[in-house]
Every structure is written in structure tokens, then in C-alpha cells.
Specification:
6-stranded mixed β-sheet; about 200 residues; 6 strands; 7 helices; Rossmann fold; about 15% strand; alpha/beta
Amino acid sequence: MVETTRWFWVRHGPTHEDGFVGQRDVVPDLSNHAAIGRMSAFLPFGAVVLTSTLRQASATALRLGAGRAPLTMAPELREFDFGDWDGITAAEAAEADPELSAAFWETPGMAAAPNGESWNRVALRVNMFIDRMNMAHKGKDIVAVSHIGVILVALQRALGNRPDEAIKMHVNPLSVTEMTFAGGGWRVGRINHHP
């Protein structure tokens, strides 16, 4: 019998920041108690709960995790390091370096913000972590509270599409994206679901 590992990727609560938020701790807005209640009720009880070490994700995970297993803090689930772009808007990054900004959005892969991480580097860190978790928690449910970039990287791998396709997908704050891993392959369920 093939064991199925179910992943529930939750994007953290909104931050209301205008610029890139990479490796900075930002306080999330968790004031939408109804949405948080629906999400908490939707997520499987007894799941392994993983969270990025950044405050916007860990605070969201704590709020959602009432009565669930203890949180496992995972630095591998941190958002892209946006380097010198952290805190500025995409328009400001494009004005400072139009070619690099275009490459980052149109042909992600090797392009990275100055002193930041590329898509490929983030994909390596995230995918290695996912592989370890699939081995450690085979046949279980996993709730991973993280960031848009990390969730897009996971989606890209599971769907088998290119980074330039994945980067255009929508994953809103306080949404869940469902994936299952069984028999060495991925199946993607709901994306950007709001219970």
C-alpha cells in the first residue's frame, strides 16, 4: 500500500508592507478572527506543524495551531532573501536596475536581487527540506506555514512547470494550498483556497 503524505501550505497573515519583505521579521495582521477560525477548523488535527522562523509566519502558525502538535521552527521555510531590495517596492527596484528587475520576474532562475537569493537557490533549500520531511513524516499530514515565494517554489516542483510560470501564480495571505506526495509523485489539489 502506498503511503500518502498530505501537505497544507498556509501563507502567513497579511503584513500591509508596500515593499519586498524577505528576511525581515514583520508583525502580521491577525485581526480577521473569522478567517483564522475557518482556517484552523479546516486544517487537519494531529498534523505535523512546520513554520518559517520569521515572525509573520510563526505568529500565524501559533494562532492557527491551538490544540495541535508543537510547532517545528524551520529556517528552510523562510522567504526569499531579497538582499538590497528588501523594504523597497518592485517599481523602485526596476528603476534602480531595469534589466535585473526584468530578469528576476520574467526569467527567474539565476537572477537575484543584489546580495539576495535566486529562485534556483531558494528551490534547492526548500526542495531538500520537503524531501527530508516526506521521509520523516511519510503517510502523515503536514501543515507548513510559510511565505509566498516558498509556496510558489513548492508548487513549481509539484506541478512540474517552469519558474516563470510559477512566479505568476496567486497565493494570498491566509490561504491554503494543498499537495499530496505518494509513490514518488506529486498531486496538487486546491491552490490559494480560503476556507
